[in-house]
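#structure-requests
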Amino acid sequence: MDGIHLNARTMFMTTILLIEDDFAIGSTLSSGLSKEHFLVTWERDGKSGYESLFANQPQLLILDWMLPNMDGLMLLKLARAKGITCPTLLLTARDQILDRVSGFEAGADDYLCKPFAFAELLARVKALLRRSPPAAVLEFEDIRLDTVKRKAYRGTALLDLTSREVEMLEFFLRHPGEIVTREMLAVDVWKITQRATPINNVIDVQIGRLRRKLDADGQPKLLHTIRGVGFRLSSEERW
């Protein structure tokens, strides 16, 4: 339990995919953004970056133009054509007007010429994130939650969830495949900040009710209990 403690601030870290082949720049940006409490995935070539973009669905993409295996402009064009809409900051040494136009036409939302100061990149990252509202619909396997209408579905079936069950499901959908402890649920769903407040039994009861509704009609089990640790939303029962 002690080894997986997370505080409230780290639970909803914004996810950023950084695709940059220059090791010095990539390590500086990855380290700097992590210290600003962003959750950063760093890829160093176009092909692995393209695959990571679809696998991880980041909230922001920082993309170098010149990359091995697939250049950033081609990567962005293909991603936009396949429905990837996350805000994108394009990094490049190219500073001509036509280069900037090409970047924007490919789907970039902002453009930063090298060399640049980290403070400027951070300001642009925050500005892009302010323009981009959080996703209204969250999905995992055949579970779908409309966070605006507060309606949840398993396949095509509307789930009859209480307000608390919707809040729990939203938390799990924002952390698919991750271990979720009772402490995390207590802080972010029940808004309890005092450690002395015992609600583990309450959480277990609510998890049981949510699981029964998710797994009704013989559906494959997706919400699992990890004994002595917490819970996990996963298509795998063993790990």
